[in-house]
Structure formats: C-alpha cells, structure tokens
Design a protein that fits this description.
The chain is 40% helix and 16% strand. The chain has a 3-stranded antiparallel beta sheet with strand order 1-2-3. The protein has a domain of 61 residues.
C-alpha cells in the first residue's frame, strides 16, 4: 500500500465523496438507497405492548461464561405452564425429532430471547 501526499489524499477523498453523493441523490432515477430501516406499524406496536402486559411465566438462564442471558417464554401453542422441568425436557429434545410435525411443534412451543448487554 502506497502512502499518498496530502494533495493526492484530498483529491481522492473529494472524488470519493462526490461520486458517493451523486449515486445516492434521491432525485436521481437510478438512486442507490441509504440503509433501509424497517418501521413498525401502530398495529405491531400495539400487539407487542399488549403481549408484554400478559402474565406469562418467563424463565431466565444466565450464561455468565459467554456474557449473555437467555429468556424463555411459552408460545400460545404450548398448552402447559412453562416450568424449569418442562424447559429442561424441551432443551434435551432439541434436534432429536422423528417427524417434521414433532420438530414444528417443539420449535414453536417455547420462544427464546437472548440479551447480550
């Protein structure tokens, strides 16, 4: 890698910024968009807020060696109350399904949220 003089560096930086700006000009017909951020609808926010107000049992498993925490919550398809014993059975059965229906039932019965501070 060669080192540029100040003049060459400024010229290269100017050309880079100018071409970047032209490619992303919103009035251009072939505009390259900036990073797209998905927005949530009011209906999604309302559903999420109402879900948080439900009194569902939640289990927590800290992973201190990795530095994050797992939270488990039962989905509406699970007909039993989520207990540590049931969670242990669920985790033990991961990847040991005999049918695709068993896989689907197991996979969507308990939700896992991982928090990495």
């Amino acid at each position: 890698m060669e080192r540029l003089s100040v003049g060459q560096f400024l010229n290269s930086a100017f050309n880079l910024v100018q071409s970047w700006s032209e490619r992303r000009d919103p009035s251009s017909t072939n505009c390259e968009s900036f990073a797209d951020i998905r927005t949530r609808t009011l209906q999604q926010w309302t559903a999420a807020y109402q879900w948080t107000l439900e009194k569902r049992p939640m289990l927590q498993q800290p992973r201190t060696t990795i530095g994050w925490t797992q939270y488990f919550v039962a989905s509406h398809t699970l007909k039993k109350e989520l207990t540590p014993k049931l969670l242990k059975q669920h985790l033990k059965m991961q990847g040991k399904w005999s049918t695709s229906d068993a896989s689907k039932t197991s996979r969507y019965s308990i939700w896992c949220v991982i928090v990495n501070p």
